[in-house]
Structures are given as structure tokens and as C-alpha cells.
Design goal:
Layout: H1 2-5, H2 13-35, H3 42-54, E1 101-102, E2 136-144, H4 147-151, H5 158-164, E3 168-174, H6 182-190, H7 234-240, E4 245-249, H8 287-290, H9 294-298, E5 299-301, H10 305-309, E6 318-322, H11 341-357, H12 360-363, E7 366-374, E8 388-391, E9 399-405, H13 407-418, H14 433-436
Parallel strand pairs: 2-6, 2-7, 3-9, 4-5, 4-6
Antiparallel strand pairs: 1-9, 3-8, 7-8
Helix pairs in contact: 2-3, 6-13
């Protein structure tokens, strides 16, 4: 990642490798600090450091080391510690076997609920990470006011319901965490639960207290929006496995655009247009990505997606994709005259999903998740049933599963599919990973 910043500086290949090793080792140290409470020993840290050293040894010729990716740690063997993290006794056993499958698509109820649904109903009993079953995971994050609006008979999302839904499995019991968007997105990538700041979509880009430390389950208590560098995300897990992640955000012209610390997040930011929404970009809320260059290297504008999908080797293992503000259900119109609100989100899907499904990477055991957070226009603070759609070459098409899932389930499922040990509240969340790889 840092190597990309040095492309205009004259360095020998040995010097470049040393810089890469330092960056990778720094990542390893942060991972070690974050997982220390789960049993990381000095011998395991030494092994991780050795892994970094081995895979950042300079090549004898420049031609063999033409990209930053060639200096990253290589992936671990499938079925082992494939996230580059220590295996702990807190990893869950449940991989998402689901008895709630039906074959009808007639569930059009709104399903709003006043109950709290944490999705942490599974037990923890195994000490091994899951075996990776997907080559690439694509996650499209949208918003809706209700399940009825997104998937009901009168939905304006015609492409989603008339074409795309036939290709996948509908999770009709999928619910949000509460009363705003950002907590869902933060949970999807880190497993962290909502707090007083994230429930207001972090109107202030507030740092956590310098003394904030994670509890035994990994949750960071107290107010704050920008998590300490010891808090990990699925992006850190992908990097630790020697692979690449990327976020693709609409109307972001630069990389990793975010406000200054502890200031109001209410203005157009340099490097982004007026339709860019920080709430749709959860990766800017973690110092583990901000401080080591992961965000500046991998958090990009949506315009990069088409290019990256052309070749499987250029397509990230984990891709997070989100539209702009005019596609929020509350939007009345888009500046360019294109459809707004849910119709705009549907147009967004119609533009990007066929490209994803036609990509070489998707065809190599790829999985597409289309998940909905709660729209800001919904009153109250209760979770809302929104539904979600999972598409893959091997999924049971035209099927519906009524089991209750939530954003922690999204993270758990991504980690199960890619072979990573679950983070924080994803450890006990229900996984739908097995649905994504079920035989047709």
C-alpha cells in the first residue's frame, strides 16, 4: 500500500522491500495488540513477524516485483489461520445451516419491529477458523424504509424484484440494528455495536477517548466514532491474509475522504462531490485503516470498479460498494436528472450488478450480497425488517429464507466465506454463508 505512494521516489528494490516489510510488520503488531486478549502468544507474534519477513524478501530482478501486492504476506493455507490471525477458542461453530428456507416469494409484510435483535444467539465452541469457500465477496450497501418498499409487490425497485431476485435467495427476515444507517455499516465491517454517537450517524467525526479499550468480547465502550487502531475490521483480515480489499464509493474523486477529527460532518469535503456520503463509507471510522495506509490505498471512488472487474487478478477479494446521497429514500431528485430514492438505488443495481455477475472474479466462486440499512426518514429507534438478497453461481435460485439475520450476520457470513475468524459480535451471529454456496 505504502509502495504506491513511493512510485515517484527513486528507491532500490531492496529499499522498497524494507519499506513494505515495515508497513506489514506494523499491521501485524496492531493485529497482535487487538487480539492479545484472545490468547495471542509471543511465539505466534514471532511466527507472524516471520511470515511478513519471508514474503517481503526482495526479488533478484525488478520484473518479479512490479506491484505493491507482490510484497504483501502470502495467504495461509485453506482451512488454517487464513486471515493471518491467531486461532482462538472463541470462534463459533455454527456456519449458518438454516431451516427457514421456503420456495415462495409472497412475503410482502412490512415487518417493522420494536424488539431488539442482536443476532447473537449462536454458541461458541470451536477453536478453528472456517475453511474459505468463496473466491470473491461483493457487498452492495443500500437503504430502504421497509421490507415492503424494497421487496413488496408495489416496490419501485423493478430490476431488483423482477430480474435479480430470480437469481438468488431472499433473506426475508433480515433486520437492521436500530434507528440509523451508520451503525449497520460499522457492524457489517467490524462487528462493533452501536453507541450514542453512531446512532446519530456520527454528526461529529468524534475520536474515541485515548483511554478507550475493548472489553473481553472486543466491544469498545463509550462514545466516539473513530475507533482506536487496535480495533480490527474485515479489511484488516483481508490484508492480513495477503489479499486485497476495496471500497467503492459514489461521488468520491480522491481516496479515503473524511472530515477532520472532532468536527461537524456537515459540509462537502475536499476530494468528493456533494453526493458523497460519509455514512456510506464505514472504513473511514477505523484508525487501523487510517494510520497504516489501508484507507488511502483501498478506499476509492466508484469509477474504479469497472476497471478492477475486467480481470480476476485485479478484482479485490472483498469489495464494498455504495451509492451516493441522491439514492437515499429521502432524496427527491438527483442533480443529473436520474431517478432518486429507491428507484435510484434500483438503477444503481441495474448499472453495476450485471457487470459484477459477468466478471471473471465473480465466476470464480463469487458471492454478491445486497443488504439494506434503515433509511434516515424512518421515525423511532427500533430495528426495521428490510430484507437482503444473496446471489452466487451455486445459490438456490428463486428461494426465500425467513430466518432472522442482521448486520452482524453479514460480517459473520463474509468471514465464513473467506475463512476468517469472526470479530466481536459476529462471533455469535447467525451466518448465511452456507446458503451462498448451496448446490443448485
Amino acid at each position: 500500500m505504502i509502495i504506491r505512494r513511493l512510485r515517484n521516489i527513486r528507491l532500490t528494490w531492496t529499499q522498497v522491500a524494507i519499506v513494505a516489510a515495515a508497513s506489514a510488520l506494523a499491521t501485524a503488531v496492531i493485529i497482535a495488540m487487538a487480539t492479545k486478549g484472545n490468547g495471542l502468544s509471543y511465539s505466534e507474534l514471532a511466527a507472524l513477524r516471520q511470515r511478513v519477513a519471508v514474503h517481503t524478501t526482495p526479488s533478484s530482478t525488478p520484473a518479479a516485483s512490479t506491484t505493491a501486492a507482490s510484497t504483501q504476506a502470502a495467504p495461509a493455507a485453506a482451512g488454517g489461520d487464513s486471515a493471518g490471525l491467531p486461532l482462538t477458542s472463541s470462534a463459533p461453530a455454527d456456519t449458518g445451516a438454516d431451516a427457514g428456507t421456503t420456495t415462495t416469494d409472497g412475503d410482502t409484510g412490512d415487518g417493522n419491529t420494536t424488539g431488539s435483535d442482536t443476532g447473537t444467539t449462536q454458541s461458541s465452541s470451536t477453536s478453528t477458523a472456517p475453511t474459505a469457500t468463496a473466491g470473491h465477496v461483493f457487498e452492495i450497501a443500500l437503504t430502504t424504509t421497509s421490507y415492503r418498499a424494497a421487496f413488496g409487490a408495489g416496490s419501485v425497485a423493478h430490476y431488483l424484484n423482477r430480474k435479480l431476485r430470480r437469481k438468488g435467495v431472499l433473506l426475508s427476515g433480515y433486520r437492521t440494528l436500530g434507528g440509523s444507517e451508520l451503525p449497520d455499516y460499522l457492524a457489517m465491517v467490524s462487528g462493533q455495536a452501536p453507541n450514542s454517537d453512531s446512532r446519530t450517524d456520527c454528526a461529529i467525526y468524534a475520536e474515541f477517548s485515548g483511554s478507550a479499550t475493548a472489553s473481553s468480547d472486543g466491544q469498545v465502550p463509550g462514545p466516539g466514532c473513530v475507533y482506536p487502531d487496535t480495533v480490527l475490521t474485515v479489511a484488516d483480515q483481508v490484508t492480513a491474509s495477503g489479499k486485497e480489499w476495496k471500497a467503492y464509493l459514489a461521488d468520491m474523486d480522491s481516496t479515503c475522504v473524511h472530515p477532520n477529527s472532532n468536527v461537524a460532518d456537515d459540509a462537502t469535503l475536499a476530494g468528493a462531490g456533494s453526493e458523497y456520503d460519509t455514512r456510506h463509507n464505514p472504513f473511514i471510522y477505523f484508525h487501523s485503516l487510517l494510520d497504516l495506509g489501508g484507507c488511502s490505498s483501498n478506499d476509492e471512488g466508484l469509477q474504479s470498479l469497472s476497471k478492477d472487474l475486467r480481470q480476476a487478478k485485479r478484482t479485490p477479494t472483498y469489495a464494498f460498494i455504495a451509492p451516493g446521497l441522491c439514492d437515499e429514500p429521502s432524496a427527491g431528485s438527483c442533480p443529473d436528472g436520474t431517478p432518486a430514492g429507491l428507484a435510484g438505488e434500483d438503477a444503481f443495481l441495474k448499472r453495476w450488478v450485471p457487470t459484477i455477475l459477468a466478471s471473471p472474479a465473480y465466476k470464480q466462486n463469487g458471492v454478491l450480497m445486497i443488504v439494506f440499512a434503515r433509511a434516515p426518514t424512518v421515525s423511532g429507534s427500533h430495528p426495521v425488517r428490510t430484507g437482503a438478497l444473496i446471489v452466487s453461481p451455486t445459490v438456490k435460485k428463486k428461494s426465500t429464507v425467513s430466518t432472522s439475520y442482521n448486520p452482524y450476520s453479514v460480517l459473520r457470513s463474509v468471514e465464513d466465506l473467506l475463512g476468517y475468524t469472526p470479530l466481536v459480535h459476529a462471533k455469535k451471529a447467525k451466518s448465511f454463508a452456507s446458503l451462498a454456496v448451496a448446490a443448485s
